[in-house]
Design brief:
alpha+beta
Length: 204
């Protein structure tokens, strides 16, 4: 991912929190000479050795999984809030742009066994059912329903490289920076407001 030095995020804790909060990602690999991508939850977890990895699952019917046998190199893409920034918000002539936060994770993927896949599903469901009025638990599902879990491949990704971009108008002076935040908040667009919130954290 091309990232000018000004916009590189090298804060490991920030990146870790971002991945946990924006875990619906895009898994990309090459299958039969063609690039493939699947939109799925990909969770940051610790393996048995205490090393950070990514976990997820993919349908056995998805042809993308065939490529894992030939080439275990994958890219997982995670995006956060993003918004158009109008140059009319500056006190000088300039070009419009786009503010955004994104993280790319490169690594090696391996398929895990059925028991490990089920444990991954338990963690995933528990995470997203935590605030449910009537939370579902994988442990409570019938044997008939759990047979559907036989139709997925659970996987782990050994993280080899992380590239993180946080492009939030860092190149603007305080006056224009604050004005961009103000204008983003006026849009009533949830994405724009989220960008404004992130910008407010970076510069008081």
């Amino acid at each position: 991912m091309y990232t000018p030095d000004l916009y590189k995020n090298e804060n490991a804790e920030e990146i870790r929190n971002f991945l946990k909060e924006n875990s619906f990602g895009i898994l990309i690999n090459q299958t039969n000479g063609k690039l493939c991508a699947t939109h799925i939850p990909i969770e940051l977890e610790l393996n048995n050795d205490g090393k950070e990895i990514l976990q997820g699952h993919i349908s056995k019917l998805n042809p993308q999984a065939e490529g894992f046998k030939e080439n275990d190199q994958v890219l997982a893409v995670f995006t956060g809030p993003h918004s158009y920034v109008s140059s009319s918000w500056y006190d000088h002539e300039n070009v419009p742009t786009w503010n955004y936060i994104a993280v790319h994770v490169y690594g090696k993927i391996k398929i895990v066994d059925y028991e490990t896949s089920v444990e991954q599903l338990k963690k995933l469901v528990d995470k997203y059912e935590a605030n449910s009025k009537n939370p579902v638990r994988v442990e409570d599902l019938s044997a008939k329903t759990m047979r559907e879990a036989r139709g997925i491949f659970g996987f782990e990704i050994e993280i080899e490289e992380i590239q993180a971009t946080k492009k939030l108008s860092q190149n603007r002076d305080d006056y224009n920076y604050k004005n961009i935040i103000s204008e983003l908040e006026k849009t009533e667009n949830p994405q724009s407001i989220a960008v404004a919130k992130e910008m407010s954290k970076c510069r008081k």
